[in-house]
Amino acid sequence: MIPDYWKEFLEANDLIEKDFELSESEDLSGVGADFSLMSFEDIIDEAENYYPGIKVKEDGFIPVGSCQIGTGDPYFINKKEGKNGALYRIYHDSVTDEGYDHESAIDKVLDHYETLLNQRSNQSGDGQ
Q1: 7: which strand partners?
Q2: Which domain of life is it from (predicted)?
Q3: What gap in Å lies between CA 90 and CA 102, rounded to an integer?
Q4: How many whole angstroms from its chain centre is CA 78?
């Protein structure tokens, strides 16, 4: 389920369970972001047992980050985009068994997830 390129990205850059904070201007949606990158076990758990992961995986979305401010809105990559694709936030309360409206449920946070490497100095903690 987890693309090899994502596993390699996390491991090569020591990013598993690392925290990131993006300002409103750094987040393409204009909201700002505060999240922690998930462990491989948490990715699988989120995708198979919780919304929105359960439903959006049908469209190629893989959960990769958990919200650090309590909204419950996880962060995703889309495996259809391949290596260095975008990073998305998907609003958990906008996705149900019946489906979801892509426009209202999904925000693009970064055009390319590897941009997170430029944010290392902005990390708010080490996730432990």
Answers
A1: none
A2: Bacteria
A3: 9
A4: 9
Both structure tokens of 96: 């149900």
Q: How does pLDDT run along the chain (128 residues), one tens digit per residue?
A: 999 999 999 999 999 999 999 999 999 999 999 999 999 999 999 999 999 999 999 999 999 999 998 778 999 999 999 999 999 999 989 999 899 999 999 999 999 999 999 986 445 444 44
Collapse the DSSP code of 60 into the 3-class scheme (helix H, G, I; strand E, B; otherwise coil) and give the result.
coil
pTM: 0.91
The CA distance from 42 to 79, in Å, is 17
Instruction: Write the Ramachandran bin of 60: left for phi over 0, alpha for psi from -120 to 50, otherwise beta.
Output: left
Q: Is-contact 83 5, C-beta < 8 A?
A: yes
